[in-house]
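Backbone-to-sequence.
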């Protein structure tokens, strides 16, 4: 008989900017977005999903390519789903974030982030079934990877506790 662990099973994972998460079991993935964007991809047949969180739209230099960029993060999430056993025809996506506060920044990075996510999903043939993007408010997003349910809370301002909801650093 195996040794029983005192560590509780992970039920909620906080996704930081520049990361992608495709869990091996059902969890809730949460993140906080301002101008950054998250794409949630779900496999309707296998009932599994993953999420990315990127801050900038595009990078051309492959030597500097990381998931902080939308073109890298979105392509990588789709590829991870396919490598995990999903088929492209069973995938669907939802897009969140992309806010723009003109008082803080003239350039609308949120719009560019949203555009790159849409462009890649369309090019790959992954239908976008819903989105909550744009505007001036930040968002807290919680994605249940087992059933493709997503909760979006719009907030006036993001607090440090929104970004770091857990005592431990992952």
């Amino acid at each position: 008989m195996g040794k029983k662990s005192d560590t509780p099973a992970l039920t909620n994972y906080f996704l930081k900017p520049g990361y992608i998460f495709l869990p091996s079991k059902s969890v809730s993935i949460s993140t906080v977005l301002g101008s950054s964007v998250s794409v949630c991809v779900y496999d309707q047949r296998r009932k599994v999903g993953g999420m990315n969180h990127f801050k900038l739209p595009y990078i051309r230099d492959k030597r500097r390519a990381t998931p902080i960029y939308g073109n890298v993060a979105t392509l990588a999430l789709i590829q991870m789903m396919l490598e995990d056993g999903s088929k492209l025809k069973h995938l669907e996506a939802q897009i969140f974030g992309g806010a723009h506060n003109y008082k803080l920044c003239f350039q609308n990075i949120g719009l560019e982030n949203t555009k790159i996510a849409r462009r890649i999903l369309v090019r790959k043939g992954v239908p976008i079934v819903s989105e909550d993007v744009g505007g001036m408010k930040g968002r807290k997003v919680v994605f249940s990877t087992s059933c493709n349910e997503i909760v979006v809370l719009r907030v006036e301002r993001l607090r440090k506790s929104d970004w770091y909801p857990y005592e431990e650093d992952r």
